[in-house]
């Protein structure tokens, strides 16, 4: 058999790994959208394989860089089953539909500009009808219940601790009387996450496809997340009378911020300003997360003994309509706006940044990983001028970050995740979902603990196993 790495290969988005067996069976692990890259449009327009030849898809979790191209794949002829956990299906349902709406809206907005300049018009990758059609192929499977996708292939989901429903995928494949064990980590969460349980151990594997986003980093801030949020909001809103704009993914990161702000209220330290979550998707996602308390860790369950809703607090409002979103930009009063996307590459947050980036009293707060060429990445890099909606804007607002707010494990978490494996039995580790220089650094750490064969595949590379 062989594995071909069609995404998240020496970069952190577009997760797609295709396993082809000797009998021709094709199993796709994830079908994610490339985000933030300069050539993302070209990459998203070409899978590197024919979707109508794939037999089934196994989805690790619902983030768009892992599920975002499923509707396009279905539109191009894929008719197989999509396996995932129940929370992943619930989140993918709203995420794929929202992605379709954002693409359509952004294309319409961009085309108003392009029409005037006689440029080629933008076309969405897919629409809401495609997203609905894709959902009809989903089949849910619980954690720790081995299931069969063909007589020769069995699969097990274990909790990866990255997002509700996120799973490491362990396959047992029988060929020529020999069993081969392959595990795809998906995205690995943190041990001691704010909300979720820690990653589970997974069965011994012969081959491991391991994410490596933070393979050279430790998530260690000098102060707790809620304290950092308090100080930034207090200084920006109460002292400088400005706005705090927080690009945050609607699923996972937004709920972590709300949980931290709720903690400030519980201890009496929440600055008295309006707090807006300007993302209809985040509203829906928060409800999905509330519907799955079985995924919470012990700390959250303790909080719920005194606060039935740990994601709500005084002054919080979820905006819905475009008119409400526009009104936030026209309101000069200090406030906190949490809006997607996390890399500031799509959605309403780009409008908020555009309208507030030229005022020194405001703060743009980055709370997660941003691909270096994304708008969020350029702001983190200290660019003094950034392009938003085809116009250059001077960066006068303060740009801050809370580095420890990541749903991805750092290199200590990743090594701990791999500690359930006997390195002598692992024939090869493939590092995916990471920048190449980071992966090179992390490969040495894996080798130091006994994993002797670590490979960093490139885009569309095919490897025989």
UniProtKB/TrEMBL annotation:
Q: Which GO terms describe its molecular function?
A: hydrolase activity; RNA endonuclease activity
Which keywords are on file for this protein? Hydrolase
Q: Where is the Beta-Casp domain?
A: 254-379
UniProt xrefs under InterPro entries:
Beta_Casp (IPR022712), MBL (IPR050698), Metallo-B-lactamas (IPR001279), RibonucZ/Hydroxyglut_hydro (IPR036866), RMMBL (IPR011108)
- Residues annotated as domain Metallo-beta-lactamase: 13-241
Where does the source fall among the domains of life?
A: Bacteria
Q: Where is the signal peptide?
A: none
Q: Does the keyword Hydrolase apply?
A: yes
Segments forming a coiled coil: none
Gene3D superfamilies xrefs: 3.40.50.10890, Ribonuclease Z/Hydroxyacylglutathione hydrolase-like (3.60.15.10)
Which Pfam families does UniProt cross-reference here?
Beta-Casp, Lactamase_B_6, RMMBL
Q: What is this protein called?
A: MBL fold metallo-hydrolase
